[in-house]
Amino acid sequence: MNVAMGQYAVSRHWQENAETIISLMRRSHEGGADLLVLPEGVLARDIADPDLVLKAAQPLDGPFLSQVLAASRDNAMTTMMTVHVPTQGDKALNVFIAIRRGEIVARYDKLHLYDAFAMKESERVTAGDRIPPLVDVAGMKVAMMTCYDVRFPELARALALAGADVLTLPAAWVKGPLKEMHWEVMCTARALENTCYMVAVGECGPRNIGNSMVIDPLGVAIAKAAEAPALVFAELDPARIAHARDVLPVLANRRFAQPELNNN
């Protein structure tokens, strides 16, 4: 599978973000990508206005996604991103969507909300209550996770046991002491401990680190972006997964049952 990581700084204006995404989709398709992964919260962002995620939220049939879906109709490339969608109680859902040929082919509502490091995502966002589905892309099983989810190894393990070959992680990873180290360590750990590929795509800009990366099933970084906007390609090889699971059979050797989702 040829994967593209579209790292960019999200604007406060959804029209500008739609144009950026459509350009990244075109360039990724021209580059032979089967899968394009974009950052978290691509509809609108402003570090000076944290309520923008609520004010700018749109339904999945709104004008933002309608434009993006229309741009995806003419090819079989799968594009993944997260957007904020209005919900009950004056909040939004942080919805991870996979689109292909003008349709939404999979959806996941973010489970773990970022109530950490003096931030409180749950003030504006309602948590999901279901483990994400797997998406078939170019003969591989692709799993969906969102940003803070990477700090919870149970989710990645549940997805690996369900058959995932690739973990995808759109993120808006906030800068701060040790935060880049946390990002690299945990993205690498989730790949290595589950012998899966990890495709982690971070928003860049004044608040967030960028630093998108592809980690292979033995913990090797095979592609990386820095702190600036970038479109980075990588090849994911099923034979590498088979080799990793042969020499490091952690999934077969485990002594614990499959993790269960707690909705309490």
How would you summarize the topology of this molecule?
Blueprint: E1 2-7, H1 14-30, E2 35-37, H2 52-55, H3 63-71, E3 78-87, E4 91-100, E5 103-109, E6 125-126, E7 134-137, E8 140-144, H4 153-161, E9 166-171, H5 179-194, E10 197-202, E11 213-215, E12 221-224, E13 230-235, H6 238-247, H7 250-253
Parallel strand pairs: 1-2, 2-3, 4-6, 8-9, 9-10
Antiparallel strand pairs: 1-13, 3-4, 4-5, 7-8, 10-11, 11-12
Helix pairs in contact: 1-3
Q: Mind explaining what this structure looks like?
A:
This protein has 264 residues and is an alpha/beta fold. It has one domain (2-249): 4-Layer Sandwich (Nitrilase/N-carbamoyl-D-aminoacid amidohydrolase), CATH 3.60.110. Helix content is 26%, strand content 27%. It contains 7 helices and 13 strands. The strands form 2 sheets. Strands 1, 2, 3, 4, 5, 6 and 13 form a 7-stranded mixed beta sheet that branches. Strand 1 (2-7), helix 1 and strand 2 (35-37) form a beta-alpha-beta unit. Helix 1 (14-30) packs parallel to helix 3.
Helix content: 25-40%
**Assigned CATH architecture:** 4-Layer Sandwich
| CATH level 3 topology | Nitrilase/N-carbamoyl-D-aminoacid amidohydrolase
Total strands: the figure is: 13
- Round the mean pLDDT to the nearest integer and report it: 97
Distinct helical segment count: 7
Order of helices and strands: EHEHHEEEEEEHEHEEEEHH
The CATH class is identified as Alpha Beta
Sheet with the most strands? 7 strands, mixed
Which quaternary structure do these chains form?
Answer: single chain
Basic shape = globular
The CATH superfamily is Carbon-nitrogen hydrolase
Residue runs with pLDDT of under 50 for 5 or more positions = none
Output the radius of gyration: 17 Å
Q: What share of the residues does DSSP label as strand, in percent?
A: 25-35%
Question: Structural class, judged by helices and strands?
Answer: alpha/beta
